[in-house]
Amino acid sequence: MWRLKMFLMQIVRALRKRQDNKKAVRIARHWIALVNSVPNRQEKVLLHIGCGDIDATGYINIDARPQPHIHIVSKSLFRLTEIPDNVADMIYMCHVLEHVSHREIVPTLREMHRILKAGGVLRISVPDFEKVIEIYNASGRDIGSIQGPLMGGQDYAFNYHYTAFNESHLRRSLEKSGFSQSLTWDPFNCEHHDFDDWASRNISWEGREFPISLNIEAVK
Ligand SMILES: C[S@@+](CC[C@H](N)C(=O)[O-])C[C@H]1O[C@@H](n2cnc3c(N)ncnc32)[C@H](O)[C@@H]1O
Description:
CATH topology of the largest domain: Rossmann fold
CATH architecture of the largest domain: 3-Layer(aba) Sandwich
Number of domains: 2
CATH superfamily of the largest domain: Vaccinia Virus protein VP39
Number of helices: 6
Strand content: 15-25%
Strand order of the largest sheet: 3-2-1-4-5-9-6
Order of helices and strands: HHEEEEHEHHHEEEE
Helix content: 25-40%
Number of strands: 9
Bound molecules: S-adenosylmethionine
Shape: globular
Largest sheet: 7 strands, mixed
Structural class: alpha/beta
């Protein structure tokens, strides 16, 4: 199963280089999604949405920006039509949900709910607005200290923030989208997270380090 999936992914990558093969790319992606949906005792279906440069073992990588390791290029996170219902064991979204309009957060979370199997986990990390305020105050209310974590790096088209989160708002949004049992998760002590990303990174400001992330996971 894994070899078949890798073979299909190689086809997608090869076809993507050719402008005239958009339909074939769509079909190959559809097949990848179908292969991923077949129950497999050894393998869990793990989706990494907004993975950026990270190519973590065992994940299907999804991002708005095409790169060789990205299996599905998509920027409409509330409409991932390539992916069938009830297929994923886990969806991981680290520092990507804040790049979605606050009007589209619940539709996006509902889309993740559609894709997850019953009992599947949606694992989220976002900048925590409470920590943004702590950084602002600790910096002597220097607005420069929070421009990045609040507004996004703004160094490429998909690096702008549109939504602020605190714990109660994120938990409420998850509940509205059909999820239960939301809990905090620890990036240094959990399954399927043996790589470095924003979930465990700090904001550095004038030689000081500040944690920034709100890490919450919920069950379908
Ligand atoms: C701040 S980076 C986080 C990368 C990685 N998850 C990490 O924690 O290091 C945000 C990523 O989300 C992607 N992204 C932003 N908006 C997106 C959208 N609407 N659909 C898909 N990906 C998006 C960007 O291209 C970028 O790779």
